[in-house]
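Appendix B. Raw example, untouched.
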Amino acid sequence: MNTRAIPLDGLPFRKMHGAGNDFVILDSRGMDPVCTPGLAKAVGDRHRGVGFDQLAEIRDGADTDIALDFWNSDGSRAGACGNATRCVAAMWMAETGRDRVSIRTERGVLQGEMRGDAVWVNLGHPVLEWDRVPLARPVDLQHLPIEGDPVAVGMGNPHAVFFVDDIADVDVAGRGAVVEHDEMFPQATNVEFVQVRNRGEVRMRVWERGTGITLACGSGACAVAVAAHQRGLTDRNIRMEVDGGWLELDWRDDGVWMTGPVAHVFDARLTPEMLGAL
């Protein structure tokens, strides 16, 4: 950890969630980044730390308004986190009074904008090439050679999307944990299970790599919107019920846009004692 960047009275953070997908947000603007695998894992512990699905660290953007790094609760890095991006976009726009924001992520430059009372974020174009998802070898992304016939989609993170008749019958934890580490995904994968209700509405549950079951997953929701439309099951604009509420997805020519609820839960500090024990 870079202790030069940590105030003597502890490390401030913000807790937010988007449709129950919860985050710790560190603000490292104006100083060196502070997050490490050890810090992410310690803070992510829901018994001994704070607990989160992902941690987002805000940094100064060289060519954008801000930059974001994402971490999973097991201390691994995440390439994208759509709901955390929405939360940070909402926070930044509230701070600045502006209705648009550009955000540099590992995924690339993402755009956020306020439409009425809703914060929309463009998570970019889906990745539909096997070696960029990435997969272990060339296969038909629409029909992976995995039991259940999933679709592979890259949205900054790899995703395996399964379409099911009744989502209540799916063992999300058991099946998700197995598929996460399937040999087809050299970097592991998020796993989504989807029941299509009609062409404009689906129900989704998700197992996130490095975290487990979460109440929502932004990049996963975008991957589902792409996969469902490619299979001819839905339109490009859909409503999605997740365990934590509702999201709306709109796959446009410039990328996959997403919106949903955003909540600021509290602000606090990690104590010097906790940080010193890492």
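End of appendix B.
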